[in-house]
Design brief:
Layout (H helix, E strand, L loop, with lengths): L1 H40 L7 H23 L14 H36 L16 H22 L2 H4 L4 H16 L3
Helix pairs in contact: 1-2, 2-4, 3-4
Amino acid sequence: MISKFFHIIDIIVNSINQTMAVLGIAFGVLLAFTNVVLRYVFDMSLPWAGELTAILFVWSAFFAMAYGFKKGTHISVTLLLSKFPAIIAKTFMILANLISVAYLIFVSYFGYELILMLKDFEEINVDLNIASWIPYIVLPIAFGLAAYNATQKIAEIAMMDSQDVLANTEHEDIIKETVGKRGTNGNS
């Protein structure tokens, strides 16, 4: 029952991350393209398009970052870890992820505090004509979702056999993929 609950939460969290990342970049590119066409073809532009495009790209990057914690696609240097016994390497990987979770929660919390402060100022964004806190709502949401995904990664590493932890690192996956491509192309 509990594992089914967390499975459903995972699906929801990762759907939000993927959807927001894709929509942010898609609408940002579409808006930027539209504004360029309007400017150079029709000699007019949307004065708010530049700011909204930047906001969409930032939102896309933050939600993609949150999804990256789930997939383990963030850069990590595991070359040094491979020199340690497997149990120590596993411990270091858990520790590194715990530090990441603490940082993500820290940013999420202070993002929330920033929103409260901006709401108190009651400022309106001049270009978009919206409350100035709205674009910043991405901070507590995306970093909170990233903290959730990083916590899931800790649980995944903790349940893994120590010998398998380093076998699942990014550079090992790249090596396997490269060797697999060579084998299918007939090159050696």
